[in-house]
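Worked problem 6 (solution included).
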Amino acid sequence: MKPESLAALVALATEPWGLDEPELHSRLAVAGVTDPASALRAIALAGLAREERRRWVPTPLGHEALREAHLLLASSQDPSPSPPGMEECPSVPWLTQVQTHWVEAVSLNYAVDAERLARLLPAPLVPEIHRGTAWVQVLMSSLRDMRPQGVSPLLGVCFYQVSYRAAVRYRNARGEWRRGGYFVRSETNDPVMRRVGNALDEFRFHEFGEAHMVMAREGELLTVAADPEAAFPGGRLVGVFDTRPQTHPPQGSVWTGLEDLHEPLVECYDALGVSGDFVYVLTIDRAPWNARFCTPVELYCEYFEEGPLAPGARLDSVLHLTECAYRWRPLRRERHTVEP
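Solution. The predicted structure is:
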């Protein structure tokens, strides 16, 4: 369908009683259609619209064409499309298709040694290399009203979470590369959310830990802290950040600006897990991060200073963001072994 025809159908479909011809021409002209009369003739000849009582309305065939166009547009803009052979497999659909808001979050972007990171990854996941190094982001966030989609926010759960997301990729059974994030470590301060997460297929690829956490603001200063329970050692985190937005990365960063790191580190919507011959993909549909560089005043992150990625881990930059809505899609999976 030509863009002009699609524009004419959309204009008609937005009015329950249709449009008369002059009004349709006027709307199409405002939309930039240079020959509205030709656009109307085209959809009429194709059986997509008809005139009823001097008003034009879409036909059933026209409504079907609009639905098909919508699916094509959604597919073309999908940051995490499903290739052939990928299947949905949510463990508890009504529970796992959740929505929430990040009230406030910081992303600590660490450049790490690729060989050290590779030891923490299950095959077939391998580190994704950007600017000559592998990457792990520590995402500490305050989550508001997490709940199944369609449920009132009054029934949602508010809690803190910290996750250590490695930038990875894998080759699927068709030989195609797909990128995503793998959580090498995670904690939450809510014991119920921890038990639920560890019981779901979506998170059975790593164990959620439990920690005492706080995020506190005083003016422009944001203090964050995570103190894991004794059963989950190695994840102490304390930081104070000046959240006044910075337009440029800190000195020593490998990135030239926000746009430079956006695709490698921010535009990552898939959380990956591995079990048997399958890679499991949990996709988050979210609003834009609208993140800005901020300045660490004090920072201690035990995982990178004394943990499996030390020595050699280097803090490259810190991002700060507020008010970001997101929701989960149903869990999907695809084979990663090459079939004969």
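Discussion: The longest helix spans residues 60-76.
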